[in-house]
Amino acid sequence: MTAVVSDLRVPIVHLHIGGEARTSGSGGVHQHVYPATGEVQGPVPLAGPDDVDAAVRAAHAAYPQWRALRPAERARVLRRLGELMERDTAEIARLSVLDNGMSAAMSQPLVGIMANWTSYYAGWADKVEGRVTSFPANQRELAYSMPEPYGVVGIILTWNGPVVSVGMKLIPALAAGNTVVMKPSELTPYATEHLMGLVKEAGIPDGVVNLVLGGPQTGDALVRHPLVQKVSFTGGPATARKILAACAESLKPAVLELGGKSANVLFPDADLDTAVAVNTFSVLGTLAGQGCAIPSRMIVHNDIYDDVVERVLAIVGGMHCGDPFDPASVISPVVTREAQQRILAMIERAQADGAKLLTGGRAPSHLTNGFFVEPTVLGDVDPNSELGQIEVFGPVLSLMRFQTEEQAIEMANSTDYGLASYVYTKDIDRIQRMVSALQAGGVYVNGATPVTGCELAFGGIGISGYGREGGEEGLFEFLRTKAVGIGGNWA
Ligand code: NAD
Questions:
Q1: DSSP per position, 1-48
Q2: Considering only CA atoms, which residue is closest to atom 15 of ligand 1?
Q3: Which GO terms of the molecular function aspect are on file (predicted)?
Q4: What fold characterizes domain 263-445?
């Protein structure tokens, strides 16, 4: 595999509308800042409502041709797109680092995940099938269901993992026969800019995939556009409420992939070598804690609590904050200065609420230009405190204690979120009880993780959202079923 090189050059960013690459938009310009250094990297054109309108109309115009394409041909170009993603892994991974400061060690596997999801959903493009139902009593009606694409789908991405979201949203929408207007965050324009070149190279016709960059106003214009038939959104619950309010006007359907406050319950018989390493790395080392499904609440049995604390601190002691291109860097910066200040303030308030700061809690003194937060661990966190209830989206791990299985379940289920829950135990009966009792879109046991496998549906309950990505369920989010009855005189 080609290594990701440290190279801070960025591409010129465009709005991609109907096959045309525009260097300016009517929404103004955002100056992109590299989170690792705080330096401005270049301008990002922002789409105004008229640009969004042009993009949606381009997608609408391209829809009949894309829908009419033979499914096997749709599968072929999507497979080709997946191959091009693999070919350009090192470059897409480099641009992902420049987008949001994630470590190169993380960005390369994320491109691999996108390519896997792309090849998986390419395989679905020619396998969309309906169902012939039993004949009505008079034997004179043929009744069947026919899944159909929606038309134009509006896709809104957030900044923490646009590349993975491309695989999870764009590709199944295309495989199902829809055309798309995609709006990444203006904070992450580079990797998706490169991907638009690959979309063209793969032979996907102009107008099938359009891209507009921008913030809330751009997203709102996309959601409200009357030709957009469905919205697929990744982001926070507060924005999701605004999107649903906008969708309510025309009763437009939406898929919502929102945040999480996921619990990891460690029983005394857990394989602690695996449990502690996986949990600590995924909370602190995954995009500096800016991951939606990370187990940010480690709920630990009293008998092993001290042992777990010791193991966590030993791992964190070896975690290095620094240049995301340095393979030794595990902790990358968070996305903006505002995010850094918000996270540090939350750590302060957690201590005022009684949590014990075990390590970290500050901005590292040798990296003041970038937006870094030391890997932070807080012990004896009150499950009902702000830190016990609210997503941090930063490198902060909370530890809590329990004595009985019932207490652990109650703690794990005590937030309004419900994206993922994790359990470590060797007791199969306990696993079955926990899988059934934990209120979340997914339960992952003994080291299993979400999203890496595209075959399994991923998504939330509660304020973690609804709808699914992955598997057949993720494809059918972009299809609606038409019922067909054909009468006749066949006697
Ligand atoms: P956000 O909700 O502020 O923004 C997400 C996207 O929505 C951005 O592209 C933004 O420009 C756009 N947007 C903002 N206001 C809008 C509006 N009124 N109408 C339409 N679009 C609008 O989220 P964020 O702070 O950028 O991202 C962090 C959140 O995303 C966290 O809660 C995180 O857990 C969640 N997330 C969830 C998943 C998942 O798959 N479940 C994955 C990654 C991130």
A1: -PPPP-----PPP-EEETTEEES--TT-EEEEEETTTTEEEEEEE---
A2: 216
A3: succinate-semialdehyde dehydrogenase (NADP+) activity
A4: Aldehyde Dehydrogenase; Chain A, domain 2 (3.40.309)
